[in-house]
Amino acid sequence: MAHSAIKKVVLAYSGGLDTSVILKWLQEEYGCEVVTFTADIGQGEELEPARAKATAAGVTEIYIDDLREEFVRDFVFPMFRANAIYEGEYLLGTSIARPLIAKRLIEIAAATGADAIAHGATGKGNDQVRFELTAYALNPEIKIIAPWREWDLLSREKLMEYAASRGIAVEMKRDGTKSPYSMDANLLHISYEGYDLEDPWVEPSAEMWRWSVAPEQAPEQPLNIELTFEGGDAVALNGQRLSPAALLAELNRIGGAHGIGRADIVENRYVGMKSRGCYETPGGTILLKAHRAMESLTLDREAAHLKDELMPRYASLVYNGYWFAPERYMLQAAIDQTQAVVNGEVRLKLYKGNVLVVGRKSATNSLFDASIATFEEDAGAYDQKDATGFIRLNALRLRVAGRQRS
Length: 406
Description:
Helices cover 41% and strands 19% of the residues. It is α/β, with parallel strands linked by helices.
């Protein structure tokens, strides 16, 4: 890419070390104007310092957007309708945030007349793929700058030296220290990678976790909560209707207080390597359990089973960055068609890291018929003699094969 062809670039900017260095590097290496974009997706940090730092770096177009409701409503909730879990454990907290950020980057590029977008994802990770697949899907002609694939600042020490030589302020935490982990947070989760987690045998330190208490330190008394679902989405907690973002935030608070949502995973990255990450997803863990319970009562058996077969493919699409791909839209349409009947209430018991379903009901869409399922006399609702023919027909091929073997 000819550097001279880039006159203006929109940078996904946090104000941290990496993106602060990237901002200056773009100004120096590309000689271009930089527009900064900072997304509030519920990471729980004050974002206004990013504006001050961008202003100090000479940026005149600064975007700080509150995307929390859009994030949960249009990205997290559709994904949870699919019950998506990657490799059996990961609730896709980072994966699902990237397409929203990249979408907004493309929108800002169009609004400001920018030639390119830039991000701070490394050449080893999944995020570069997620950002760029989204960008190309939404603007096939967009130019993308990925500094980690161009520069030689490939260590924290080199980044610190670069920042010091250019007078870039690097803020530490309030107590003067910085977490040794690479962390990513949003309304769905917080993740931890690097440092001692690079040895899969090392147990995470108790001090690492930010959102949840250890299960053994959770309250001795369980807590019962009720979630109300409409069209497959949670709309109320304990009878109180909440917006998508507010509901997830409250589930995070409640779940974290009861030690719910911790995961320690070795996962397969799209670029080919295995990586170890730790995650806290308290609200998402509760939401998934409740949604599956609601579906168990209201979904037809074959529709439910087909959804379960499609889920791993859907999860892989999200993990690998194909949110805006035709196949994700196709799967979403099929999944959403099933959700019209997923209405009702689920009661859950939270206790020391566990989420237990203790009740579910649907006034309009329950397929549970006690008169048929009862172990008592059912007044002719089900003729048990019919099972004889059913079994013999299903056993026919097994009997034929058995005769061949004998």
